[in-house]
Each structure stands twice: as C-alpha cells, then as structure tokens.
Amino acid sequence: MKAQVFAVDGSQSKKIELSDDIFNGKVSMGSIYYAIRNELANKRLGTAHTKTRSEVQGAHKKMYRQKGTGRARAGTRRSPLRVGGGIVFGPRKRSYKYHIPKKIKQLAMRSILSMKNAENKLRIIEDFGIESGKTKDLVQLLRKHITEMRTVFVLKDDDMMIKRAGSNIPWLRMLTFNRLNAHDLFYCKNLIFHETAIRSLNDMYGRTVTEKKTEKKVGEKTVGKATEKVEKKAETTVEKKTVEKVTEKTEKKAEKTTRKKVVEKVEKAEKKADKKTDKGVQE
C-alpha cells in the first residue's frame, strides 16, 4: 500500500510504500486483548502484604485458663478472631508478571497499526527536530497536523530535545519505533510517525511476515517429500503383499495337484492288486 507523507508545515510531500501485512491486514482483537492484559499485569507492583498469625506481634501464651472464668475459651493473642491478630487469606507480596508468545505480540502490533490506518488516525511526518527544546515550538508544529487529543508520537530515535519539549504536554506520549506498547497505541486518538520510524518499523515487522511465508513454503515442501516417501513405502508394501499372496496361492495349488496325483496312483495300485487276487482265486 502507498501512504501519504506530510511536510512539517502540514502540506502533502510525497508517498511511500508500506507493507499490506502490517498496515492493511486482518485485525485480531484476541491478540490485542492478550497483549494489553500482559502489559498491564507486568506493570503491577504486587507490594500489598498482610501478616498472618505466625508473623503478627504477640505472645504464644494462653491468655487465661480454659475453664472457670465464664468467658469463651481462647488461646494465643495472635488469633485472627482478635483485634490485632493475624489476617486470614490476605494479600501477600508477589509478582504478577507472565510471558506471552512473541508471535502473539507481533500479531497484536500489526493488528493495531492496521486498525489505526483503517480509521484514518495514522499520520506520517517528515523527520524534524526541536533545537530549542521548548514545548511551545512542538505544540505549534503538532497543531498543524492534529487536534489536541490523546496522541502517540513515534520517534526515529531517542531525540532528547523532542522528548524534553514533549514531556510537559499532558495529551502527548513519546515512544521510539523499537519500544512500542500495545496499550498506548490502542487507546490513542492520533498516531504520528517520523518517516524513518515508520520505514524501520515496516522493515522490522516485514521480516517476521516474510519469515512466516518462507516457513510455510518450507513446511509444504517437507510435507510433500514426506507424503512421497510414505506413498512409495505403501506401494512397496502392497507389492510385497501381492507377491506373497500369489506365491501362497501357487503353493496351495501345487499341494492340491500333488495330493490328487498321489491318490490316483494309490487307487490304480489297489485296482491292480485286486485284479491279481481275482485271477489267482479263479485258477
């Protein structure tokens, strides 16, 4: 796809070629959900902590005797039933961090970029710098391109003067192209890119797409080779089975014929013997 690049003064400058797989592909809402949920979970501190009855301060000694006082029986002062005692099933210090597959993260970023491009919220500006580092200069420049709404500005590198100028703007968030996060990109109303930033981002995510395509091709080739081998093996096994069946049939036929011949010979010999015995009796 071709994307419009704007000059610093807001006029149209030129068009650049971007990958359809990254900026004009299918939107996967599931991967976006998993990526944002993972980012928010990884930001949690997990410092909430309560003490159990083994950690709370207090003596282990029985408070008073078991019987004779008229009061309910009681053991240690650390019991959760008493004021100042331990807390049952309270929050404990722990880490909420977990990992999701890298391919899901990449799919989420491609889906968000495609969504913002489809909603006409993505804008590319030629590379510029703020030499003075003043907020006023950056705001005047951005007003030529967008309205003052929740905006993410993706930089080509860590330009300290632009970051200094934008750090005091409440509706602006500054990110570099290689350190994006799904939460800010998804909820922003305007998404601005430096020209070199979007080119490098296109190259970075374009590699993963091409790698996937090559993997698919390689997989198809390997599957084709495997199927050919299986078919050849099947053919050889079928031929062996047919040869075995034919040999078994011929052997059975040969056995039958030999049996018949032996029986016929025995019958002839018996008939000759009977004739001889009949002649001897007549004489």
Characterize the structure shown.
This protein is of the alpha/beta class. It contains 7 helices and 6 strands. It has helices at 20-23, 29-43, 102-118, 135-143, 160-166, 182-187, 195-282; strands spanning 2-6, 12-17, 122-125, 151-155, 172-176, 190-194. The chain has a 6-stranded mixed beta sheet with strand order 2-1-3-6-4-5. It is flat.
Distance between the termini: 121 Å
Average predicted confidence as pLDDT: 86
Strand fraction: 5-15%
Strand order of the largest sheet: 2-1-3-6-4-5
The total count of strands amounts to 6
User: Helices and strands, in N-to-C order?
Assistant: EEHHHEHEHEHEH
Spatial shape: flat
Q: Given the structure, what is the number of helices? A: 7
Residues in helix, % = 40-55%
Poorly predicted parts: none
Q: Largest sheet, if any? A: 6 strands, mixed
What is the oligomeric state here? single chain
Radius of gyration: 43 Å
Structural class: alpha/beta
